[in-house]
Design a protein that fits this description.
Elements (H helix, E strand, L loop, with lengths): L2 H11 L9 H14 L10 H8 L3 H13 L3 E4 L3 E4 L4 H24 L6 H15 L3 H17 L4 H18 L6 H19 L3 H27 L1
Antiparallel strand pairs: 1-2
Helix pairs in contact: 1-3, 2-4, 2-8, 5-7, 5-8, 5-10, 6-7, 6-9, 7-8, 7-9, 9-10
């Protein structure tokens, strides 16, 4: 996306800051736009243009950049500025180690709870299928991220949920560069539906097994896409 288009998108976000102009809220907006691809990996986050577009001070913006850097979504390069982070193949592998530990652990924890609310998981599955029916494969990817966040949330732990948000935001950095195609995203839908069916039946063990297999296959798929991009 061009610089001017990105600025126009941020300008439309300005009303979101009416209640709070804090660095946390600015970081939330930028995080969303980064994971949507408005600011793709490797692009420079211009202080003057973003500050003007959002109507916030440079100091507030710098604090938000620090938050994004802490989340590994941005990196400061000396004498050059702040850039959206670019993932390496090792980053992808490490992210999926963390995802398997966190998401599969969340299902084990959920199995111990007396009640589990699956509404967010089911909503993400419905959203993904509806987006696929419309041929909007980028939206299918967004629904996939929501599905995995909802799975992490089943643990009932704010720390687990926070970890999932950060890890999934990093994962989405690579989704921006991957193919937004039916072949890339459609297999996710069937896996989501199978996992949801197991969870609805209280079959947490099979759901965890299916999820771990799914995450390993997704890792291989993303690494293959990464290799194609660099070849």
């Amino acid at each position: 996306m061009s610089t001017s288009a990105a600025e126009e998108t941020l300008a439309r976000d300005r009303p979101l800051l009416e209640r709070s102009g804090t660095a946390e809220r600015v970081a939330e907006i930028l995080r969303q736009r980064i994971t949507e691809g408005v600011f793709p990996p490797g692009s420079r986050l211009s202080e003057p243009s973003i500050s003007a577009a959002l109507g916030v001070s440079r100091n507030t913006l710098r604090e938000s950049f620090q938050l994004l850097a802490h989340e590994r979504l941005a990196v400061h390069e000396l004498n050059r500025g702040v850039f959206v982070r670019e993932l390496t193949a090792q980053d992808i592998s490490d992210l999926y180690v963390m995802r398997r530990v966190t998401e599969c652990g969340a299902l084990r924890r959920a199995a111990e709870l007396s009640t589990v609310d699956l509404s967010a998981v089911a909503a993400a599955v419905r959203d993904g299928r509806a987006a696929a029916d419309e041929g909007d494969w980028q939206a299918v990817g967004t629904a996939s991220i929501a599905f995995h966040q909802a799975v992490g949330d089943l643990a009932g732990s704010e720390r687990v949920s926070t970890t999932m948000r950060q890890v999934l935001a990093e994962t989405r950095l690579f989704f921006v560069l991957a193919e937004n195609t039916r072949a890339f995203f459609e297999p996710f839908l069937e896996r989501h539906e199978r996992i949801l069916r197991d969870l609805e039946r209280g079959r947490f063990g099979p759901a965890e097994t299916a999820l771990e297999k799914y995450l390993r296959e997704a890792e291989k798929q993303l690494l293959a896409a990464y290799d194609r991009r660099d070849s």
